[in-house]
Every structure is written in structure tokens, then in C-alpha cells.
Amino acid sequence: MSDPIFDNETDPQVQTFSKAYLEPPWHVVVLNDPVNLMSYVTFIFHKVFAYPLEKARKHTLEVHQDGRSILWSGPREKAEHYVYVLHQWQLNSILEKDA
Question: What is the CATH number of the domain that holds 81?
């Protein structure tokens, strides 16, 4: 007889936990737009992601020069939250699933 405390096959919490770590990460991608100033974009990256100003500037330049920058990668729900927050700050952002 199996011990219910260690029975991973029937415990939905353990199954969900394992599934989240097996799925590929999702990327939060910010796209370039002609509206927002680079200083504003840097400020938002610093505020939302708590990036140091140098890292926020690096991502801002990447958006400006390459047209996009991956700001964060991880579980889908958290990535969706970041995209929602960036939209509230009027930044054009999308989700991308890691290949």
C-alpha cells in the first residue's frame, strides 16, 4: 500500500508543480514604438522589473536598435501579468513561447 503523503501520482498539487517546471518558459517581449521616449521606457523597465538603471538602459537601446527586447522569461501566468502591466504603461509588449 502506498503512503498518501508521498504518492505523487494522485496529489494534484505535485502534478501541477511538476508540469509548470516542465513547460518551456514564456518571454515578455517589448516592441519598438515611435511614441514613447527612451527615458520613459527606461524608467518603466526600472520600475516594473526592478532592473538597475544600466540594465534598463541596455534593454531600452535594444528595443530602439533591434525593434524588440526580451525583458523576462518564466512561467506563463507571471509573463501574462508583466505584459498586462506594460500595457497599462502604454508599452507595446507581447508574449512569446520559448522554442
Answer: 3.30.1390.10
Concatenated DSSP letters for the chain?
---TTS-TTT-HHHHHHHHHHHSPPEEEEEEP-SSS-HHHHHHHHHHHH---HHHHHHHHHHHHHHSEEEEEEE-HHHHHHHHHHHHHTT--EEEEE--
Q: Cα 91 to chain center, whole Å?
A: 14
pTM for this model (two decimals): 0.77
- pLDDT by residue (tens digit) across 6-38? 555 565 555 555 555 678 999 999 999 999 999
Q: Is residue 45 a contact partner of residue 56, using CB atoms and an 8 Å limit?
A: yes
Does residue 83 sit within a domain? Answer: yes
Q: Is residue 16 part of a domain?
A: no
